[in-house]
From TrEMBL:
PANTHER family xref list: GLUCONATE OPERON TRANSCRIPTIONAL REPRESSOR (PTHR43537:SF24), TRANSCRIPTIONAL REGULATOR, GNTR FAMILY (PTHR43537)
Matches recorded under Gene3D superfamilies: GntR ligand-binding domain-like, Winged helix-like DNA-binding domain superfamily/Winged helix DNA-binding domain
Domain of life: Bacteria
GO molecular function: DNA binding; DNA-binding transcription factor activity
Xref: InterPro entries: GntR_C, TF_FadR/GntR_C, Tscrpt_reg_HTH_GntR, WH-like_DNA-bd_sf, WH_DNA-bd_sf
Record has DNA damage as a keyword: no
Protein name: DNA-binding GntR family transcriptional regulator
Keywords associated with the record: DNA-binding, Transcription, Transcription regulation
Native organism taxonomy: Bacteria, Bacillati, Actinomycetota, Actinomycetes, Pseudonocardiales
Length: 232
């Protein structure tokens, strides 16, 4: 188990014990850290230092930085290392616009595919999510929210499109679910219109409701990052 202090002072715990796809796990950690300002624009990410903090060898860190370099999140500078590329409001907005489009399409397709018993289970899960939100159990809210979206996406029978959605979700800092104001509330309250459209077998209604939900949480993240002066 690796434990590191975020730049804001909060302790983040992340398991790096599983060697499978270790570089991807490190990349996810750095990617999330960039999104929330743990790694600031212009900062150099020191391979050996980060490897020591995470309790891994330098190799997966180097591989992770190479991957993030191909994504444009960091930039290699000869003899100096990898430097964090500035994150802009447009960057985050574009991320959620793409995510809203894909998630909306998946929901539209799921509207005619979900069985009644699956819809019943979704609503039961949503009831648990709402109770968790009232209890302030944000980890449970995040887990149940994931289950709901995964069920809808799988029901769309569009595996490759769902993979593309996953690429965009990789940039969403889910590890900070509790600290982003409005996220747990959005999961508790935005889903009702999605479920209504799914229950009515209304593809266009499901598309609009899901897209609106994703754009809503995207706007909340932008505001969160602005307040913390993360965005350029």
């Amino acid at each position: 188990m690796g434990a590191t202090h975020g730049r804001g002072g909060s302790l983040r715990r992340t398991s790096f014990e599983n060697k499978q796809q270790l570089s991807e796990k490190v990349a996810a950690y750095i990617r999330e850290g960039i999104m929330v300002g743990q790694f600031r624009a212009g900062e150099y990410i020191r391979t050996e230092r980060l490897a020591e903090e995470l309790g891994v060898s330098p190799t997966p860190v180097r591989e992770a930085l190479m991957l993030l370099g191909s994504e444009g999140s960091v930039r290699w500078e000869p003899r100096r290392g990898y430097r964090v590329v500035p994150l802009t409001t447009r960057d985050v907005g574009d991320l959620f616009r793409v995510q809203a489009f894909i998630a909306g399409e998946l929901a539209a397709r799921a509207a005619t595919e979900l069985r009644d018993e699956e819809l019943d289970l979704l609503e039961e899960t949503q009831a648990k999510l709402e109770q968790a939100e009232r209890d302030g159990d944000f980890d449970l809210v995040e887990s149940l929210n994931y289950q709901i979206h995964r069920t809808i996406n799988k029901a769309s029978d569009s595996a490759r499109l769902a993979v593309l959605l996953g690429v965009t979700v990789n940039y969403v800092p889910l590890g900070y679910y509790a600290s982003i104001e409005g996220w747990s509330s959005a999961s508790a309250h935005d889903h009702s219109s999605i479920f209504q459209a799914l229950r009515a077998r209304d593809p266009e209604g499901a598309r609009k409701a899901m897209s609106a939900h994703i754009e809503h949480v995207g706007g909340q993240l932008v505001e969160h990052l602005r307040q913390r002066e993360v965005l350029s």
